[in-house]
Design goal:
Helix content is about 40%, strand content about 15%. The strands form 3 sheets. Strands 2-1-12-11-10-9-8 form a 7-stranded antiparallel sheet, sandwiched between helices. The chain has a 3-stranded antiparallel sheet with strand order 3-5-4. The protein is α+β, with helices and mostly antiparallel strands. A hairpin with a 2-residue loop joins strand 9 and strand 10. Helix 3 runs parallel beside helix 9. The protein contains 13 helices and 12 strands. The longest helix is centred in the first third of the chain and has 23 residues. Keywords: Hydrolase. Its EC number is 3.5.1.46. This is CubicO group peptidase (Beta-lactamase class C family).
């Protein structure tokens, strides 16, 4: 039997891989040791003075839940850019309803009211450059926006992003920006692109984003979202400014962990969860994201102790970290006060996430 030995090798290899995965999960199937949690709580409290909450769920059961610096279960936080990952799921729900067009559709096909070529104007300066800009703008797709590869000349958290937020029409503001790269070629984090995507999505679903989310996401998950700010055109800000309690962030994370399902109800297809958390933009390093390995549809990707994680990330330390093979969801929130160190808080929180997912934190 000349195939016997190779078959034995394959069998042993498969068993080893299976056993390693089971062993990895088993390490997280016990309650956290009190000695570990006491030390962890003290260290994170001292290390992050703006911290509001840190919650860990494993196998759909909360195994660690602490509130800090005056916060409690009822405290409502601005989740900042975690909003983007929620908008990603809203896009998936629209796709499940067969109303989201192909992601390679140019955004100006959906928002034709903004497709005004400047070649129709006479005597404007740098007409050649502006006409060239218009032709590039017509190639900008929904997928380019979903993956932060719009190509605009943009610096996040700068004067230009402030100017957009003060604009009388932020969507027009973004579309009028010059291009630094061709769409679809280079990752550049840009909340303006998310706002543009949100405007297109709202037009596709024929209602504002909060209403669509309430009917198809928040209400089914029993999430309380008391506030989602709008721009000067009364559009919900797709990239930020949503407010909720940490427990509601956890409900969202558990739904994603369970491939779009929670409490027996399929909120969004597992196909969309898989697609949206896959790598669509190269991201081999990021200053606040240790071991980053790509960007999906408004989802960050990184490894924590060798385990693939998908992370919804908001300014100042608002995180929903999903680690599928460990069946873990970690939620963190921080107060946006004068003690908050901005992006530094995010980097520090990943240090503590790594401590939590390390095997020796378990008995």
């Amino acid at each position: 039997m000349k195939f016997k030995q190779p078959l034995q090798v394959i069998t042993v290899l498969c068993f080893t891989l299976f056993y390693s995965k089971v062993k990895s999960q088993a390490a997280f199937n016990k309650e956290l040791p009190k000695e570990f949690t006491d030390q962890f709580t003290k260290e994170i409290n001292d290390s992050i003075p703006s911290l509001g909450s840190f919650i860990v769920s494993q196998n759909n059961k909360v195994v660690y839940e602490e509130y800090f610096h005056g916060a409690n279960k009822e405290t409502i936080f601005s989740i900042k850019s975690v909003t983007k990952s929620i908008v990603s799921v809203l896009a998936g729900i629209a796709q499940d309803k067969n109303i989201l067009p192909n992601l390679n559709t140019p955004v100006l096909k959906i928002l034709p009211e903004y497709n005004v070529s400047r070649s129709s104007f006479k005597n404007i300066s740098n007409i050649e450059g502006k006409v060239a800009h218009d032709s590039i703008r017509n190639t900008l797709t929904l997928k380019n926006l979903l993956t932060m590869q719009g190509g605009f000349d943009w610096v996040e958290n700068s004067k230009i992003s402030t100017a957009m937020s003060f604009s009388s029409d932020p969507v027009k503001f973004v579309l009028d920006l010059p291009f630094e790269e061709y769409p679809g070629t280079v990752f550049n984090y840009n909340s303006g692109e998310t706002h543009l995507f949100g405007a297109a999505l709202a037009k596709i679903v024929k209602t504002n984003l909060k209403q669509f989310a309430t009917e198809n996401l928040f209400r089914p998950l029993k999430m309380n979202t008391p506030r989602w700010d709008t721009d000067s055109m009364n559009r919900n800000i797709a990239g930020s400014e949503m407010f909720m309690k940490p427990e509601d962030m956890l409900k969202f994370g558990l739904m994603v962990l369970n491939n779009g399902k929670l409490s027996g109800r399929q909120i969004v297809s597992s196909k969309w969860i898989q697609e949206s958390t896959s790598e669509h933009a190269k991201l081999n390093s990021w200053d606040v994201m240790p071991d980053a390995n790509g960007y999906g549809y408004y989802w960050w990707r990184r490894k924590t102790n060798g385990h693939q994680a998908y992370v919804a990330t908001g300014y100042g330390g608002q995180l929903i970290c999903i680690i599928p093979d460990l069946k873990i969801v970690i939620v963190t929130t921080c107060f946006l006060n004068d003690k908050n160190r901005g992006r530094t808080e995010i980097k520090r929180l990943h240090y503590f996430i790594d401590k939590m997912t390390k095997g020796d934190s378990q008995p």
